Amino acid sequence: MTSAQEASEILHHSPAAPESDREPTDTPSDLISQVSQADQVVQIQSQQADISLLPPPSETSMQDYYRLQQNLLALTLAFSAVIFPTVWWAYSLNIALNYLVGAFTGVLYLRMLARSVGRIGREASSANSGGFNSGRLAILIGVLVVATQWQQLSVLPVFLGFLTYKAALIAFVLWTAVLPAKRVL
């Protein structure tokens, strides 16, 4: 062992120095600011890593996505076209029109959701925002608030009409799982 290594070992194994001999340490607020700065650096690096991990969108994948988008929209409209006259026959025109308001809101929500998903990976601001697009949710909330305040609208048929796009989505998934080679529409 060299003398430098021996001195280092002695210093590390020696009892702690008295309080007056110690060097001043950082204050808690300094430590908190250092930790928050380090956390910000880690977040930026992870966002950059996430963006770099995404493959660039190819023409065929975007065409597949647009085809999926069109199929879901067409299936939602087909479900609405079948359910509307059925509700009119089973209940009344007023309830059927309430359903239609909800179904229209669901189609609008689906279009906004598809447009938002289509922008993922193409815009750097969407990756950095990390936020939830509350405009889509505001449409549903707005329609439900109008339905509760307006005497001619009923909340349940409007809400069930909104959920028509979910039924179409479930049917599409089941269809593609059972018969993957056949087209839905």
Q: Could you name the key traits of this structure?
A:
single chain, 185 residues, mainly alpha, 76% helix
* DSSP summary, beta strand count: 0
* Parts with pLDDT < 50 across at least 5 consecutive residues: 125-130
Element-by-element helix/strand order = HHHHHHHH
Distance between the termini: 80 Å
What structural class should be given to the helix and strand makeup?
Answer: mainly alpha
Molecular shape? flat
- Proportion of helical residues: over 70%
Question: Brief description of this entry?
Answer:
With 185 residues, this protein is an all-alpha fold.
Task: Tell me what you see in this structure.
The chain has helices spanning 3-13, 28-53, 59-90, 93-119, 124-129, 134-149, 155-162, 164-178. It is mostly helical. It starts with a helix and ends in a 7-residue tail after the last helix. The model is unreliable at 125-130 (pLDDT under 50).
List the helices and strands and how they pair.
Blueprint: H1 3-13, H2 28-53, H3 59-90, H4 93-119, H5 124-129, H6 134-149, H7 155-162, H8 164-178
